Amino acid sequence: MKDAFGAPQSLLVLGGASEIGLATARRLVARRTRTVWLAGRPSPDLTAAADALRALGAVVHTVPFDALDTESHEERLGKLFAEGDIDMVLLAFGVLGDQARDEEDPAAAVRVAQTNYTGAVSAGLVCARALQTQGHGSLVVLSSVAGERARRANFIYGSSKAGLDAFAQGLGDALHGTGVHVMVVRPGFVRTKMTRGLAEAPLATTPQAVAEAIEHGLRRRAETVWVPGTLRVVMAALRHLPRPLFRRLPV
Q: What's the mean per-residue pLDDT of the chain?
């Protein structure tokens, strides 16, 4: 269960080697979180993430998880919930892809869509049902401002995040009143290994800032969190900008 400040005592991170996921886990472990499951493909990064959290005093388990292997999600994630209640699930996996390459390689584009959307729908529904069965918990979904409006520069990635965002909002409505809280997080450009080498967008942020916003959102039981918060206003304006003008913007 959560403590008086809204911090979960147990946490499952889907995409356990994610820098945002790890930053969030670190922040929550520093509060009251004591048990963490890091679910992801076995790798040195996943092992290092687990070791880092153990050094902070958490009990950490690593779990093999592949977003693309949707047929395994129900059994693999179901086993975790069968071992005991999980207070919070952070859906943190995703791939950026390469827009120029993916436009020329439909199979690569499909992989982006399957990872960011199809895999998330599968894992999200499995976890949502388990949280509903236990009667409490939060499902936090990492979306992106890229999903607010398709941009020429990354419309394949953006479209996958748009689908994820709509799915998570609808899931939150479906679970309203069940004791399960769904929170959609919409960061802008985040400085991570995934974005290294890319031109930095205005209002760029860090994994630590996203983690702080997630923690504050949990306390408020927010349904949508923007990081940084000023992006809410920026994207409201861009969303309604006429397309001929939008095309001219350097975005």
A: 93
